[in-house]
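sanity check this fold:
=====
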Amino acid sequence: MGEVVLPRRMFLWCMAVIYLTAFVSLYVQIPGLYGNEGLLPARWQLRYSGKPLVEQLLSSPTLLWLGPRLGLDTHTAMELLCLIGAALSLAATLVEAFRDSVVFFCLWVLYLSMYEVGQVFLYFQWDNLLLETGFLCILVAPLTLIGGSRGVREHDRVTFWLTRWLLFRLMFASGVVKLTSRCPTWWGLTALTYHYETQCIPTPLAWFAHQLPVCWQKLSVVGAFVIEIAVPFLFFSPLRRLRLGAFYLQVLLQVFIILSGNYNFFNLLTVTLCLSLLDDRHVYFWLRKAYKTDNGNDDSKLWSWLCYLLELVVWALLIVGTIICFDLHLDTAKKGISSRTAFTYHQFNLFLKTVTIPCIWIGVLSLTWEMVTSLFRCACVSGFFKRFWGTVQWTVFAGAAASMFAVSLVPFTFIEYDSNSRLWPGVRQAYEMVDRYQVVNSYGLFRRMTGVGGRPEVVIEGSSDGVTWTEIEFMYKPGNLSAPPPVLTPHQPRLDWQMWFAALGPNTQSPWFTSLMYRLLQGKRDVVELIQSDVSQYPFHQQPPAYLRAHRYRYWFTESKADGSFPERWWRRVYDEEFYPIVHLGNSFLEGMLNQYGLKDKSPPRRLSNTTVAQAVRWVRSQVRGVPAHTLIWTLIACSATFCLLQGLRHKSKDAEKPSDAHKATATDRTENAADGSSSDHREKSDEQQADEEADKEADSEDEVEEEGEEENEVDEEDEDEERIEKR
């Protein structure tokens, strides 16, 4: 593995942008989700019993316990923490000095504080992934704000290796769980024939992807299995071109997912983790700059050819293995490539038992190699105190990396029970101690394909008289058959996502839905803005509905017409069943559900705080109210990227000026050297003339010629010029 200075800097910048996205996206939705009149008020999660602050933090690690000490209620404190997180991440995005270990620690603590009270709306795998990756940033980032240096540290490759191990766990587990779940669509390679229309919030391109032939959909599933299960083993290859190939395959998969689905910042975070597969040499290749190595001699031709041969063998084995495992062959009748799963569940389970423990040993060997090479670099540092300080740093960070790796083995081996049971009990105890802080997590996305019989979708209807009903259309999730799917990455509308999960089962599995119906009947503006940021688009913005009900429908993408033209509508649907009965304020069923789930606030409303901080927080809220979250996020990202680009161009111009100054100095030296050179040329000419004249008469000695120097040469030049003029 080469130097990783530039990939590490890119990784930290991307993490700052993702933190910015996550905090802003959550901030916009706090009043409707966690406000005092929201769906699940956050203050219900914090019981102020008068215990010491330390005990409160141990019981629930969140900074919201400090709210009363600052004179803030829980809702205002949440908004304040989100604003601080957004400001810190924006500063880290714009200024490299803020991409510091202390800043990333603050960002991690702030997001963890939100996560602790976020309840069902924050319990997504990408929230866990952000917390785990954010914790790794604390180890990867330099410590400069308290007097450190931004220079390259010998242990950087050890800590940065942890992001590669996290990427391996994420991708490998995501591929394995699709097969261990025994989902018939994944085993039949038909999952993508349903995925594009049944995913939570598709994009317009998902409609076009859904129209592809079945053979292409099955080949896409095969490609996903190869990229998620087989390719991750190349992350630890000692051959850099294999790692680069794995990098581009992973990025290709993530780009396809981004184009076809709105998965907030998850795929961007995965691409950020993929940066751990790069080195400085390849980044310089992107920048079209020459990469200077310390090695004076290039690798021998024999070694280069051996590497090429080994790489070809690896890719050939990967291709042949794919053909055998999925029985790929040309189908002349259908004019395509036929595919099927050529192995059984029992065979795959044996494969999983065989490779899980070797995966751990591969990680051990790779981490050990990084540690040994880093220790060797520490030993090569000149100066006793620098060498000693570097060794101390290496000891601390190598120990932290080894601990993180050991603890991560527990969630990683969840994919295979026997391997998990063979782990050392001490590792299990360590995992139980840090589990609540989301330092390491288990992953496995798209375990089973839902909506095989049609995409279930809950449609809420309101009425003022109980006779005429009007559908309440959400801003992002499918509802209106003619409305095109939105593009809102990297924002996550958390209510829309939970509406997708709610449609998969009865309303009793989603207690928050009762709270949603109750708040809509009350006409709470904060909740209405979760449905439509522009309240005027909400059909009951003037007066809350007197009655509400909800039905479940089955949605499908429309098909293209026989002549190849596009249909007028994006969706078609059929009625399925009643999801929630007709309710109104004071309805016995609604009251019973609210009391059953503890969703009715019996405590009196709290008086708003009038402290300076609270007023400032409310002023910021008034400025962004009504602005769509995805528009706000992309505006911040575009402005930040533009600022960073201009900053980079300014530094480039400064760097260009420095060589120009040096060039001027060099030009001056060259002029002087040229003058000396011309005088020496003239000396040669005068010497030749003197050699000719010495045959007729005596000449001056060479010492006298050297003493006269440039003056004699100038005289000679003037004489020669006069002779030329006379001849002309």
